[in-house]
Design goal:
This protein is an all-alpha fold and about 130 residues long. The protein has one domain. About 65% of the residues lie in helices and about 0% in strands. Helix 5 crosses helix 7 and helix 6 crosses helix 7. The longest helix is centred in the last third of the chain and has 22 residues. The protein starts with a helix and ends with a helix.
């Protein structure tokens, strides 16, 4: 094997091993994980669930991550201004369809899903920024 190829193999395998050995606490938060953990009760021994709930309660931090003009986008529309309410409703067990109806007169499941995903994405971004 040529020396250059061997060095590349060592670099690639070292990066892979560092990724595999990375502790669970340093894994990035995903939108799906935040969404699932919002429904759980924060309990002792579940630091990631506690971190999600702490970040969700810091509304001022994650709402500033919302891009300018989000309320004009067709995907989010007026729900952009009500994302803290969306998190509250979702946390207390409302379905996406019920949330969609609260956001718009003819709201539906898809509208609620988009709002929940947008809020969870912002919370995940905040958690990943904080490390």
């Amino acid at each position: 094997m040529r020396p250059f190829a061997f060095q590349r193999l060592l670099l690639a395998s070292g990066g892979l091993l560092r990724w595999v050995k990375r502790p669970a606490a340093s894994q990035p938060y995903t939108t799906a994980e935040v969404r699932a953990r919002l429904r759980l009760e924060p309990a002792e021994g579940q630091p990631r669930t506690q971190a999600v709930h702490a970040a969700a309660s810091d509304v001022g931090a994650w709402i500033t991550l919302l891009p300018a003009g989000a309320e004009r986008e067709a995907q989010l529309s007026l729900a952009a201004a009500r994302l803290p309410s969306v998190v509250y409703w979702y946390r207390h067990g409302l379905t996406a369809e019920q949330i969609g109806r609260r956001l718009a007169p003819f709201g539906e499941n898809v509208y609620g899903e988009r709002a929940i995903d947008a809020a969870c994405s912002l919370i995940a971004t905040l958690l990943n920024q904080r490390g």
